[in-house]
Amino acid sequence: MKNQIFKVAAILFIGLAMVSCKDAKNKTEASEAQEVTETTKEAVNYSANVDDSKLIWKGSKLTGTHDGTIKISEGNFSVEDGKLVGGNFIIDMNSIVVLDIEDADNNAKLLSHLKSGDFFDVENYGSSAFTITEVVEKDGKNMISGNLTVKGIKKNIQFPATVSIDGDSVTLKSEPFTIDRTEWDIKYKSGKFADLAKDKLIDDNIELQVEVKATKA
């Protein structure tokens, strides 16, 4: 009987893991930070419109999801020969908001927890950053590679995005993509580090989407 229960539990665990992996959109594997190539004198600089730029996030667990946004406080793009060649933007972690919880008290409770040391530790790491290291075209898409810095940890990631350059404006909108939060020391209730029941664990995957609009400096 014990063996049978163990087998059933193992099958359920594997099944849940497969569903989690399947649902992860554009899963990116973090690697060592890469050097940033300096742009040439011919590159045109565009400054981010902070009111129209944001990072959209979604976190998951077995019992549901939470989502929200984080503001981009400053940033810029470099364009050369009509193509995006570089850029950098700063993410204001203090501006994180939760959008899916209408009750004010519950919303504030989750928001406070996200800002705590269990997650983003905004008291010590008020800003995150993303710096583009490479832009290549692949299967008709722009693949954006860059160094993502969160909680002082810098790692290189890649995601697909649509880049529109129209005269004095540049718009970058990524497809939803997924990172493993534990790569940036966000380990709270991760199955890799906690011995908890499955319904108590929080998925290591965080889904993100970048939207940045900029105008010629």
UniProtKB/TrEMBL annotation:
Gene3D superfamilies the record matches: Lipid/polyisoprenoid-binding, YceI-like
Name this polypeptide is given: YceI family protein
UniProt domain Lipid/polyisoprenoid-binding YceI-like: residue ranges: 45-215
Coiled coil: none
Organism: Aureibaculum marinum
Listed PROSITE patterns: PROKAR_LIPOPROTEIN (PS51257)
InterPro entries, per the entry: Lipid/polyisoprenoid-bd_YceI, TTHA0802/YceI-like_sf
